[in-house]
User: Fold this.
Amino acid sequence: MSDAQHPSRRRWALQMQQPLPSSTVFDRIAFLVATAAAVWLAVIISIEGVRSPWALLLFIPVWAIMAYLVLPRLHRLLSDLYVPDYFFGRTRTGDGLLGDPVNLGVDGSAAQLDQVMIGAGWHRADEITAASTWGIIVSTLTRRSYPTAPVSPLMLFGRRHDVAYQQEVAGNPKQRHHVRFWHCPPGWLLPGGAKTDWLGAGTYDTDVGLSLFTLQVTHRIDENTDVERDFVVQSARDADPAVRVRDLRDFTTGYHSRNGGGDRFITDGHLPILDVTRVRTAPHEDPDGSEEEFGPDPAADRPGEGRGESLRTTAERSMRRAPLSTSFAVGVVVLGAIVDVLGLTLGAAVDPGVQALVAAGPPEAVALLLFVLGFGVLIALAQLLMAWFVLRRGRRSRAILMVLLAIGVLTTAIDYLDGTATLGLNGTLLSASLQCLALLALSSESAGAWARRRSRTARD
Assistant:
């Protein structure tokens, strides 16, 4: 059947072929500037570490910058060149690396999927926030149970997973069964023409370790992902007799590879598809005490594509809440502005040269000094104002703030190269580091997508 008879599929294909919007181009330029700034910052701290007796302690920020800022960005830039952006049975990490294999499908609504998974003893994973990130760090270090711990985002269809479920093993947060699900785009077909409403990737976490590719702290997965896939299928079938399973045999050829964390895995290439369309959903009780039936998403094109009210409410609440990258950037901007203002005012107050200039210098020199101090304070206040609007989802405010931060980092770098500024273990290095970190966070994909979503929602 031709694409003309599948308008939704044709719209999806055309959407993938459209040129990048100007906002995305701007984000990618800021992404490159922030990556260069991160490399520069790591080099400066490394140099200071060699000169300082605190070299061992300075290794920690250098590792953090390289593992969480520089290497992921380099992987993202390179993978955009050589990793094809079409479906071939693999997810992608947020850094663009190939992730876990797609090894599961689901036919049915989100409400039906949610009821089956919850009934099978699975817990819906929390969204990644500052609180949940701190929670999983504490639970891992103290080995305390965290049954709804967040999972790292994986990408499919150009977006992160819609919902993830997990089961802890013996209350140990290091070991868990978990599976991520993505809702398929309207009219989208699997290779070979088969249809399904959801695709999933199920893996079993065995321990916590360092990623082979980015050196980040991450969960390590069990090599045999087919065992975890079959565990998810069996748990769903045991939870509700209405669940049926159909297999797409040899969906892909069997292969072995590595995921985005560097963990080796093997798969036989089969794709079982859970059919939950016969599952009867129970009334859902809202937090205000009223009961509401799970309903289909009005945007769904065909039966079985509806998203349950509970998942939709969770997604909408998540979209309204600023992502961790944006919250972190705003917090760093506030801290950086305070450091800049205190550095300017206190530095001027205790500097003997400044005191002598104010006491006996010519009025023109005093006026110039006050202008420079006032301009520095004004820039800091402007950053605070832009940070406030960024939290209110201001797309232009985010762009202006990134420009201000880039100018600040570039100015410090120029002053360092011409000898005007000395970057040691001092306030200048701290201020430059904070500006660099804020620029890195604001130029991340999650921060950009959250800021742009407001305009899309308004148009819809």
Notes: Residues 393 and 451 are 5 Å apart (CA to CA). The radius of gyration is 26 Å.
